[in-house]
Amino acid sequence: MNFPILSSLILLPSIGALFLFFTRSKSENKITVKYVALFTSLVNFFLSIYLWFLFDQTTSAFQFVEDRIWIEGLINYKVGVDGISILFIILTTFITPLCIISVNNSITKRLNEFLIAILIMETFMIGVFCSLDLVVFYLFFEAGLIPMFLIIGIWGGTRRVYSAFKFFLFTLLGSVLMLVAIISIYWITGTTDVVQLYELGIDTKYQNLLWLAFFSSFAVKTPMWPVHTWLPDAHVEAPTAGSVLLAAILLKMAGYGFIRFSLGLFPSASEVFTPLIYTLSVIAIIFTSLIALMQEDMKKLIAYSSVAHMGFVTLGIFTIQQQGIEGSIIQMISHGLVSAALFLCVGVVYDRMHSRLITTYGGIVTIIPKYAVLFMVFTLAALGLPGTSGFVGEFLILMAAFKDNFLVAVLASLGVIIGAAYMLWLYKRVIFGKLINSELKKMIDLNKSEAFTLTCLAIPTLYFGFYPEPLINTIEVSISDLINTYNYSVASK
Amino acid sequence: MMDNIELIFPEIFISLSIMFLLILGVFKKNSSKIIHNISLLVLLITAVITFNETISVNPTVIFNKSIVIDYLASFMKIITLIAAFVVLLISSNYLRTFKIFKIEYPILILSSVLGMMIMISSNDLIVFYMGLELQSLALYVLATFDRDQLKSSEAGLKYFVLSALSSGLLLYGCSLIYGFTGSTNFSVISTQFNANEYALTFGIVFILVGLAFKISAVPFHMWAPDVYEGSPTSVTLFFTMVPKIAALTVFIRFLYIPFLNLIDQWQMILIFLSIASMLFGAIAAIGQKNLKRLIAYSSISHIGYALAGLATGSNEGIQSSVIYMTIYIIMNLGFFSCLLMMKRNNVYYEQIDDLSGLSKNHPLLSISLLIILFSLAGIPPLAGFFAKFYIFKSVIEQSMYFLAIVGLLSTVVAAFYYLRIIKIMYFDEEKESYDNDQSVWLKFSLTVSTILILMYFIFPSELIDAVSKINII
Questions:
Q1: Interface predicted TM-score (ipTM)
Q2: Is 0.80 surpassed by the pTM of this model?
């Protein structure tokens, strides 16, 4: 394989963005601009599908590796994928075109710049999942702040400034310690190359501090309780497409980071800190689910449910068992699809009524039936009904958790029940009930593009719910290898 | 005596040019434009000569070891010259607007550059002091250049009084060192001193105080915001960049050549200066409303990072500081190019609120400023991130974790006020648009600096290669 497929995936959206930058954004070529962006992201999507097609599922080694000297003797530009990262890349390239399709009515000003920001964002997100060098990873990880800050700040709601600042500063504060850790790793081992670091291992005496530094960054990004407070604000104020990107992909960077770096590089520290993660995860699951019950703003409710779902993910990862980590990855993919869809659903009614409050709605099932059906699919997927992808992830995670720690598993299961409660209650209040607000009668059902995006998301949600085999096959070998290495290094300590 | 005189040919050339231009200015009426252009040429030629004659020379000491020509000197001189060149290039419209487009302006800049070149090359306390005073005297006048403005005169006076005080401290330090080592020459001092002599430490401290004043490191920064605000903007631009290069070079030479063995004594001082500058600069900038004051505090905090590199006591640290200053200068040039573009009907605007909604009226200008500000905040993949990355790499190499963590945390604080400018530009309602008739050179310097910042990550090795030849220890 000489064709640098991963670099193409990373660069292509940026080239599209550059193209858009030189296009004058006049009102008459709004459609053209959108098609350019859509075309770029679709090409990227098919390229990533092709990547999945070429991907060899039988090995845990990194594939499609590109290794170029970037700064002599210091950093190499190294990218590659294994079973863990490839699914996230496909998720990214899948969600981005849907985001671009969804920016119909919601973005009225500066469409051109908005699309540029989204495409640049895609570059950085793919970069995060590909990079096999800690510095390159950090670069992409942090760079994503810039477009997201602008997306929230320019196109957001009324409290957009506050939310954008909170998002930016929280994440930056978390990340700077990771930078210290990365540089320290460089001086301890002499390299920041992840593959080499896997082989070399890091001295146990440094691991705890390094783990904490990485944790501070990932915990903010995940987000874990108690540093989750930026998420509801950011979600509520961001435009629909921004919320979708944030929920579907940005949050996954941290989960991915936990698997790739925290487990992979610091096995003994991971063992030490597992109780911490368990505690925070369980608090996140139960506490934020309870908060979600009380929300009156639909977006805020979904945002809190994201925190709870990510609590399951972190719980699953740190069970450090095959099922647990598989479950976490599937949960992340599923949450990527479902939360994206739910935010789009909120966006649909918001575009029509300009309100996100649950009390505005009620009894709209007869007025917009198609919407009601699709919304139902995603509600059920979010609460983990068997037959949806949400179930597979949660089930695997809970199974692994029961093996490891009974109490934690019971508490987490409690969270599942509360999760069902708030999602169903949300659905009931929005879709069913008496039609009180007469304004709602004027609502029109899904238009073609909305129906298309939501269906696109519904298909994989259901498909992987019934048949998660393709996902599991892809990640299986990489995870079992990761766990073997982990057990080996913990045992040899 | 006259051996190797060609090595100081750049200095000789620039001094002859100054004299020639002075005479030309006196005898020819309305010659400010010609002198302005000739000065540009002189700076350019001097940079070329320096590049050709000295950059590849092996380290040489001449004139009784009082002048040293090495890679560090040549590199810093070229940066000084280029920075001064750009300042002169983009300031002509501003000066014309304020009717201070006079012959003295370029000549004063040339003289201060000459002083800095001497400072950069100095290997002797007396030579260093001469260079320092030459550049300071020129800078006092430059600060008050818009003499009909009360603020400008105030700035100049303030700078003069405080700077004179610091020069006094510096001289006192020099005399102490001379008294306890019997020499003013860096190379001689390094062989002669007795490390147990407390007075020697006092001498070092006094000199460090004087130098810290020149680079406006906390707690000797008080003059900077007032002087930066009061001086004409083009002079502020000069202040924020050029004198700091020279002072930083002297920092390097003074600490690393004679007193490397006393690192225990001065390392703590530098760490303190560095942490105080980084934190104070970041926190104090939050409340500012004037862009020039804000950039004053921002430059204080940036100097803190450069000092962090120097505090390491290693070659990597010095190199990272030099890289930091180079990138900082590029960012600063870009920032001030934007500031000089904020003109409407011959009035220049410099409040932060004047940037309100800039992105609607001037999309290209605001995207450049956006990139520059994110880079100043140190967000990857822009050049400012790499600058900080190298600094922290060398700091952590010496296991100075506290310094690294405080430094990185203060970048988060600093990010806040850069973000605030971006917020005002992008999220707020627009105001009247600014004039679009900017000079070509202003646009040019903004474009070039923005592209350099944006594209730095593609060719990061070039600058490292250039700097890696600096070996002081």
A1: 0.89
A2: yes
